[in-house]
Each structure stands twice: as C-alpha cells, then as structure tokens.
Design a protein that fits this description.
Largest sheet: none
Number of strands: 0
Structural class: mainly alpha
Number of domains: 1
Radius of gyration: 14 Å
Strand content: under 5%
Length: 138
C-alpha cells in the first residue's frame, strides 16, 4: 500500500465545478465503454468531443487504464450525484488533495507511470479548459 505523492494539482480542477463534472462524465463514460467492450477513446470523443476538449481525452483514457491496472480491478462507478470511492479518489488526486492510500500490488515503475499520467491530465486540463473558448477553437 503506497500513498501517491500530491505535490501538484490542477488549478482548473480546484476552481471550476464544470471541469470536474466534465472529468466525472469522462470517467463514467469510459467505465461504461469498458463494461460493454466498446473502444474507450472513441466513446469519450463521441460523448465529450463537442466540448472542445479533444486533446485531453487520450490522457484521461490512459490515466483510467493505468488506474484499473494499479487497482487490479475495474473502476467502481457512482450514479447521479453519488460518487464512488474510486471517482472521489481520482477527483481528489486531480485537485492535489491528500487521499487514502491505494491498495495495490504493482511495481514502482507502474506507480511512477500513473503519477505521470495524472500530472498530464492536470496540465492538459489547465491548458485546455483554463482558456477562453474562442482561443480553444482556433
């Protein structure tokens, strides 16, 4: 059991509820696609591509893939307003908040890769969602 270092965070994730709703929607869309054996990235683009956040979707896809590998089980998804423990932990990590340790049995290399994927999502969220829509469309 290891605690994932929380030295970084997404400014947008801490300040924008709409960015968190978008991330939560991506997590649930990804989980449903996995459960129904559909391509996850294609499902993410179909569901969220029209928001102008296409560059962040492959990073979210990778982060969630690594999360499943790290946990050794499928993501647990919430319903409606109720967040699952997994969703809550991912949002807390995205915001740079302390979380309970992940129970996992993986290599340090996998844990390092997960941390890099998390940081990539944080940076892309700030870059893509932290700028005005008119600049994103350009």
């Amino acid at each position: 059991m290891t605690t994932i270092p929380n030295t970084a965070h997404s400014i947008v994730a801490r300040q924008s509820p709409s960015a968190l709703f978008l991330f939560l929607d991506a997590v649930r869309c990804w989980g449903q696609a996995r459960r129904h054996h559909r391509p996850t990235l294609t499902s993410l683009y179909a569901r969220l591509g029209h928001y102008g956040c296409g560059q962040i979707l492959p990073a979210i896809d990778s982060l969630l893939d690594l999360t499943v590998t790290l946990l050794g089980r499928p993501l647990r998804l919430g319903r409606g307003k109720a967040l699952s423990d997994d969703e809550n932990r991912l949002i807390n990590l995205l915001q740079g908040r302390r979380t309970a340790p992940f129970v996992h049995t993986c290599s340090d290399a996998l844990l390092c890769t997960f941390c890099c994927a998390l940081r990539s999502v944080q940076l892309l969220m700030d870059m893509e969602l932290g700028q005005p829509a008119r600049r994103r469309a350009a």
